[in-house]
Design brief:
By secondary structure, the chain is α/β, with parallel strands linked by helices. 46% of the residues lie in helices and 10% in strands. The longest helix has 19 residues. The structure holds iron/sulfur cluster. Iron/sulfur cluster binds next to helix 2, helix 5 and helix 6.
Amino acid sequence: MNDFEFRQTVLDPISSSFCAAKWYNATIWLGSGQTTSCHHPPAHGVSQAEVTARPSALHNTPQKKDDRKKMLAGERPAGCEYCWKIEDMGRDAVSDRVYKSKIYPIKDLHAATAIPYTEDVNLKTLEIAFDRTCQFACSYCNPAFSSTWVNDIKKHGPYTGLVSDGRNHFTHTHDGAQLYTFNQANPYVDAFFKWWETDLHATLQELRITGGEPLMSGYTWKLIEWFKENQGKSVTKLAINSNLGFPLAKVKDFIDAIRPLPHVELYTSMEAVGAQAEYIRDGLTYQEWFENVCTLLDSNTVKAVHVMCTINALCLDSFTDLLHQLMEFKQIYGRGRVNFSVNILRFPSFQSPLVLSRELRHRYRVRLQDWMYRHRNNPWLHEHEINQVQRLIDYLEVVETPHSEAFDSPKLLNDFKQFYTQYDQRRGKDFGATFPGLKEWYDGIQIQQQ
Ligand code: SF4
C-alpha cells in the first residue's frame, strides 16, 4: 500500500485528523521537563508533581489527552499545523501523520482509538533529550538546544532588530531549557529511568536519544551501558541522533561501546555540502562528518545511518549535491543502510526557504525537478524519500507563508538580513563568499530599522 492509499484507507476512516504519534510517540526534554508528540508541534510543560507520582505522565499530559480527543472527533489540534498545511496543498499530499502512523501495525492504530482519551498510553517510540550540551551552534538552532548557542549569546549579547521571531529564539540564553546539570537531582530524569526500568524497556520499540549532542551527555553512555549489561532483557532498538562532529578517536570509542549491541541506528543532520553546510551548521567540518559516516558504516556496528535534511533558505543551493552524495553512499553501503528524510523548516520563519525570491525558488525547484526526473524510478530510493523530495518541490511552488502566524514577506526578509549580518560578525563568516548564487539577491535587501 503506498503512502497516499494508507492515508485514504487506514487513517481517514478513523478520522480525517487521526495521527498515531499522539498516542504512541513522544519527544521529551528531560532537562526542562517538556514534551511534544513528534518534533513539529510546540513543546509544552510536564508537571513535576505528576511525574514524581506517575512516571508515565512524562508522555500522557493533559494537553496530549485533549489533542487525542480532538483527533478522534476529526478536529485538527492547532499544534499539528505542519501537517495540516501540507495536506491543504491538495495534490494527494502526504503529511507526516502518514509517516508517523505507518510505522505501527494497523491493529495498534485501531487499539489506540479504543483507549478512553483520559487514560495513559504506553509509548512505542520515544525520542529523549537529557540536556542541551552541544559543540555546534547551527543557524536554525538556538540556545534552548545548544550550549554553544548559549555561549554565543553570553559573549555577544542578544541578536538585535529581529521582529518576526515571536519565540525569541536569539535574544536570551533560554535558561529554562536546562534546569539541572549532570549529576544534579532532576525529577524528570529520575522519572524516566524509573519508567524505563519498570515498563518502557519491555514495551518500547525504539528509543532515540537526541540533544544537544547526545554523545556529550553522560546519560547517553549510561544507557548504552544498561543495554550492554542487560542484553536480551529489552526488545527496544536504540537510536542516537549525533552531529558526528568528533575526531576519529571519539567515534571509535562509540563504535567500541555499541559493538555488542544487536540493533543501533544513527541519525545525523545534513542538508548541504562543503562550505555551505559549514556555514549553516556552525561548528561542522564537512569532511570530518563525511569520514565519520563512512567509518560508522564500515564498522558494521550500526544497522543504518539516517540523514535528516532540514530544508532552510540556504541549503537549497547545494541540496541536490548532497542528494547525489547520499545516492553514492547507498550504492556503496546498500539501499537500507543509508536513508534520508526531508523536513521543511518553519521556525525561525525568516530562515524558511519561502523567504527566497520567486526567481530563486523557481531556480531551485527546477533543479529539484530535474533531479526527480532522473531518479523517480531509481531502485536505490525508498518511497518516502521520493515522496518527500516531491513534497518539497510542491511546497516551493504552492506555499507562500511558512506558518499561519508568520510575518509578511518584507519583515521576514528584513530579519533574514539582520540575522545573517550579525551571524557573520559573530562567527567570522562571509555570506556573499559562501553563497555566490544568493549574493545579488542578498545584497539587494536593504535593512529597515523596525
Ligand atoms: S504534527 Fe503531524 S505527525 Fe506530528 S503529531 Fe501532529 S499530526 Fe502527527
